[in-house]
Design brief:
This protein has a seven-stranded parallel β-sheet with strand order 3-2-1-4-5-6-7, with helices on both faces. The chain has nine helices and seven strands, in the order βαβαβαβαβααβαααβ. Strand 2, helix 2 and strand 3 form a beta-alpha-beta unit. The chain has one domain: 3-Layer(aba) Sandwich (Rossmann fold). Helix 1 runs parallel beside helix 2, helix 1 packs across helix 9 and helix 3 packs parallel to helix 4. The protein is of the alpha/beta class. Bound molecules: NADPH dihydro-nicotinamide-adenine-dinucleotide phosphate. NADPH dihydro-nicotinamide-adenine-dinucleotide phosphate binds next to helix 1, strand 2 and helix 7.
């Protein structure tokens, strides 16, 4: 018998979480000023990532998040950048490059529109949803791949796209258009993961369920999570920090053999 096979498995096979990221890791998080993006920024800063976070217009909460990140001793950039605008995206990637070589992208910025049946949606509403949730995510993924791909002389990296359980459930009577935009994110994840798998880049998605953030108020129902939490097998809504933990794991070396995967963070719903 191989003597090694009789050895007990190390209890702590993986390095402690505060040392998961080498000090050289740099992450760009779109929509990092509030909600899931903000929780992700703070967690990754705690784990040693230099953080570039973007926001669309709310500078004050983004500044608070940036300060929380800096308290972990990492360099931080906070950039006003609308993911609907290609020049803004390029500026955000330039700001991230000031921190070092980009190794991670969290494609998080996203919006919903007020609840509506499909028969009532307007063309402007669908255009804006897809401009932010789909085109913005595609352009950010494009910029990340241009910099990270070993095919272009890069050193690789990891991308996490923030999809939604809505992509699977369809959000009938609420926002089927939003759900469809997240369906597009799932397809982006599958296709891009396979496209760049041999170029040093892993691409995965997290599908949050009902998470307590401001996004529900933006859709016209601040109490939406409480209304629906009875339909969640775990019996409650989720917290942004619980989604951030999944994102951080997918970015980390612990997920080194994971690409093209979808991690549902929806309490079973
Ligand atoms: P929030 O509304 O709490 O925060 C959204 C963030 O995205 C803000 O920082 C906002 O900037 C930014 N943002 C919005 N539009 C743009 C834009 N055009 N360009 C750049 N940044 C923008 O949202 P959540 O944290 O709840 O959502 C984050 C992601 O998670 C989204 O993709 C969402 O679809 C997804 N998700 C959320 C769920 C939930 O229940 N909360 C469930 C499933 C998925 P600013 O502060 O300036 O407005």
């Amino acid at each position: 018998m191989n003597p090694a096979s009789t050895q007990p498995r190390a209890l702590h096979y993986y390095p402690p979480s505060d040392r998961l990221a080498a000090m050289s890791d740099v992450v760009l998080i779109t929509g990092g000023g509030r909600g899931i993006g903000a929780a992700t920024a703070v967690l990754l800063a705690e784990r040693g990532y230099a953080v570039c976070l973007t926001y669309r217009e709310q500078q004050a909460p983004a500044a608070v998040v940036a300060a929380q990140c800096m308290a972990h001793g990492v360099p931080v950039r906070s950039v006003r950048a609308d993911v609907c605008r290609e020049d803004d995206i390029l500026r955000a990637f330039d700001a991230a490059a000031e921190l070092g070589t980009l190794t991670a992208l969290v494609n998080n910025a996203g919006i919903v529109a007020p609840q509506s049946r499909v028969e009532d949606v307007t063309v402007n509403r669908i255009r804006e949803l897809f401009a932010v949730n789909v085109i913005g995510a595609f352009l950010c993924a494009r910029e990340a791949v241009r910099g990270m791909s070993t095919r272009n002389g890069g050193t690789g990296g990891a991308i996490v796209n923030i999809s939604s359980r809505a992509a699977v459930l369809g959000s009938p009577g609420e926002y089927v258009d939003y759900a469809a935009s997240k369906g597009a994110i799932d397809t982006l994840t599958t296709g891009l993961a396979r496209e760049v798998a041999d170029e040093g880049i892993r691409v995965n998605a997290v599908r949050p369920g009902l998470i307590e953030t401001d996004i529900h108020a933006a859709a016209g129902e601040p109490g939406r999570v409480r209304r629906l939490e009875g339909s969640v097998p775990l019996g409650r809504g989720g917290r942004a920090e619980e989604v951030a933990a999944a994102i951080a794991w997918l970015l980390s070396a612990e997920a080194s053999y994971v690409t093209g995967a979808f991690l549902d963070v929806g309490g079973g719903r």
